[in-house]
Amino acid sequence: MIAVNLQLSRSKLGSYWLGLACIFFCVETIFAQPYEVYDQRPPGIESAYVQFSEQRVHYTYSGDQTKRGLLFIHGTPGSWQAFGDYLSDRELQNEYFMVAVDRPGWGASVSKSAKPDVAEMVSFDFQARAIDAVMSRYPDKRWLILGHSLGASIAPKVALIAPEKVGGLLLLAGSQKPALGGARWYNLAASMMVIKWMLPSNLKYSNDEIMALRRELASTENKLMQTQLNADVVVIQGMKDRLVSPKNAAYAKDKWQSVFSKLRVIELPEAGHFLPWKHSELVRATIREIEY
To answer: What is the mean pLDDT of residues 100-107?
Structure first.
């Protein structure tokens, strides 16, 4: 009887631990979106689609199509709405042609397949080529790519596959060093079948992206170290970021000097992860400073 009770207690404890992991992961992921979500697109923002592989890739755009391109890549989870305030900015509309992409698997970017190949979709190569398909709609344009969080991790891959189109990168709170991009304990827990079935589909996919992060960063690093890119790059990192290691700033300083034609790293001592919204004035000013 004692052994049975002990086994039940261990089983209950395991259930509590797994439940706690699920809650922790859900809460931290959900609150990684501190921006307004629109029921309808604000005036001046248009919507369009481009076909890539089996994906119908959705993006929104605003601004002057005769001006330089400014393309936004959101994190995980996310959608174009992460950058709705920027696309709605009248001053930016006068200065740039702005595009915000729903990365494959997010927002209105959906697959024709009933069971899409998630392992392929979470690869940076697939994500970057989908973004390149959007840029290809505007063949005469050169782009500044602004990525936040996982979007900032993917952005260098876009520059690798389309160097003639990408003149600048503004990378906000992004994982870049493979060793710093490992899954956390709650990501590992959320990958367990007993937990995974409890999660909403968007959080499952978000966790799939995080689980693949270290591998994809290693692939990007390997190619970057063999390349020189004519791009003006600015990395902004909050030194009190709880979701992405602040050590990524030092990594960029150390490893990327020989990769990009121009590199600047900005460390914000008191900033956290949500740079596009908490430090929007700095982000806007930096956008205007980048030459491309």
So the answer is: 97
